[in-house]
Amino acid sequence: MGIRIITDSTCDINREEAQQMGIVVVPLKVLFGDKEYREGIDISMEGFYKKLAETDKLPTTSQPAPDDFLGYYREAKEARDSVIVILIASKFSGTLQSAMIAKDIVEYEDIHIIDSSSTITGLRLLVEEATKLRDQNVEVKDIVNKLNELKERIVLLAMVDTLEYLHKGGRLSKSSTILGTLLRFKPIINVKDGVIGVVGKERGTNKGIARMLELMDEAGQIDSSYPVYFGYTAKDDKGLLFKEKATNKYGLTNTTLYPVGCVVGTHVGPGASVVTYIRK
């Protein structure tokens, strides 16, 4: 009897990493018109952002079906293994609902489904912690308890480069989009309790980064026993600049810069910068 770990593709753990970690990544999908792509399988990040920049109509995204979980659950049930399923925030996607339906179908109680209340690098942090604890032979109930405690301490902040994609998704009026573009405003958002909130809007990249650092101060001290992850969409220049400034300010020693994948990239567009960490 072992512990199996399942997550979804918005964690942006690629197939090679997943194999090394011994986990399963269930893909969400992105659709350009009637053409469907499984995230991390059918389209590269570079190919996605190229198509995103060229399209006049925002692509859509879709959650996995219960069938996408069933095979993994049945294998675990037959082997009498425990399963920990760590997924994108339920307020962002119906992925967790599909996972719950699949659990009901297989009628196996040793499946533990966790709403991360996060996504991208926030979800990655939880998956990596689960993998580490599993490899240390920690019991499944203790891993689940630890993950539920940690998810309450995740800080995720992002600066969006353009308002265009928020408008395409119906979140801003055209007039607001034009005004924001002309004034070079950089909206800053956070993810808290599985909800996206707008926490600032600065004119220009440098002021935006400065405000992001202020928001990090306000969010609480960084727990240095966990890594600090930075992210970017399409081009890494702003992500690298933000990572450099945050590293210098806080004396960070365990950081990585990751690209943000197709599903989340659909909604924020290219040029976004992200930071994720565990606060004390």
CATH architecture heading of the largest domain:
3-Layer(aba) Sandwich
Strand content: 25-35%
The low-confidence parts are: none
What is the string of helix and strand elements? EHEEEHEHEHEHHEHHEEHEHEHE
Largest sheet: 6 strands, mixed
What is the name of the CATH class of the largest domain? Alpha Beta
Q: In which range does the helix fraction lie? A: 40-55%
List keywords for this structure.
four-stranded parallel β-sheet, alpha/beta, Rossmann fold, 280 residues, Hypothetical Protein Tm841, Chain: A,domain 3, six-stranded mixed β-sheet
How would you describe the overall organization of this protein?
- With 280 residues, the protein is of the alpha/beta class.
- The protein folds into two domains: 3-152, Rossmann fold (3-Layer(aba) Sandwich); 154-278, Hypothetical Protein Tm841, Chain: A,domain 3 (2-Layer Sandwich), CATH 3.30.1180.10.
- 43% of the residues lie in helices and 25% in strands.
- It has helices at 15-21, 45-54, 67-79, 95-106, 120-135, 140-150, 164-168, 174-183, 205-219, 237-250, 262-268, and strands spanning 3-8, 24-26, 29-32, 35-38, 60-62, 82-87, 111-115, 154-159, 185-192, 195-203, 228-232, 255-259, 273-278.
- The strands form three sheets. A six-stranded mixed sheet has the order 10-9-8-13-11-12, sandwiched between helices. A four-stranded parallel sheet has the order 2-1-6-7, with helices on both faces.
- Helix 3 packs across helix 4 and helix 5 (120-135) packs antiparallel against helix 6 (140-150).
- The longest helix has 16 residues, at 120-135.
- The radius of gyration is 19 Å and the shape is globular.
